[in-house]
Amino acid sequence: MKKKSVINDTPVCQIRMQAISDTMSILSGKWKFHIIGTLIEGNKLGFMDLLREIDGIGTKMLSKELQDLEMNQLVNRKVMDTKPITVEYSITEYGATLAPVINEIAKWGIEYRKSIFEADGEQ
Predict the structure, then answer these.
(1) What is d(CA 75, CA 94) in angstroms, rounded to the nearest whole number?
(2) Dist CA 95 CA 92 (whole Å)
(3) β-bridge mates for residue 45, sequence order
(4) For residue 3, what pLDDT is reported?
(5) How far apart are CA 113 and CA 79, in angstroms?
(6) Please, is 95 exposed, middle or buried when counting C-beta atoms within 10 Å of its C-beta (0-12, 13-18, 19+)?
(7) Which one, of 109, 62, 108, 106, lies nearest residue 87 by Cα?
(8) Residue 4: what pLDDT?
(9) What is the pLDDT of residue 117?
(10) CB burial class (10 A; 0-12, 13-18, 19+) of residue 50?
(11) Closest residue by Cα to residue 73 from 98, 106, 49, 51
């Protein structure tokens, strides 16, 4: 006889798990947090500025991730009336609400790295 799951049995838990799933699908991937964090710190940046700031990302991937973030209303894209045409990216008001999350993830990562290096040093 299969044991019934107790964890996802409540409506509140189901809503919470759906919210986590939604969030992960919007922010998944290697680069989205880098892009959001860079735009939160840099305010308004051009495509090439972002490319320089985000170490290791390629032009196609940056373009794709910016499109995803724009579609999900976390990033604004503004085409400037210049020659040659330049595009400026900025974080939306709602995208900026991710700042505390990014700060906590960074804090967690720093502490985790410290704990791993301390554990390695004890061996």
Answers:
(1) 9
(2) 5
(3) 89
(4) 56
(5) 40
(6) buried
(7) 62
(8) 56
(9) 86
(10) buried
(11) 98
Q: Could you tell me if 91 and 73 are in contact, meaning their C-beta atoms sit under 8 angstroms apart? A: no
pLDDT at 123: 46
Read off the tokens for 119: 């554990």
**Low pLDDT (below 70) residues in the chain:** 1-9, 121-123
Tokens of 6: 């107790």
Q: Map tokens 């502490």 to a residue.
A: 111
CA pair distance 111, 23, nearest whole angstrom = 24
Structural tokens at position 5: 């799951």
Q: Give the pLDDT score at 87.
A: 94
* pLDDT, tens digit (0-9, with 9 covering 90-100), for 19-44: 999 999 899 889 999 999 999 998 89
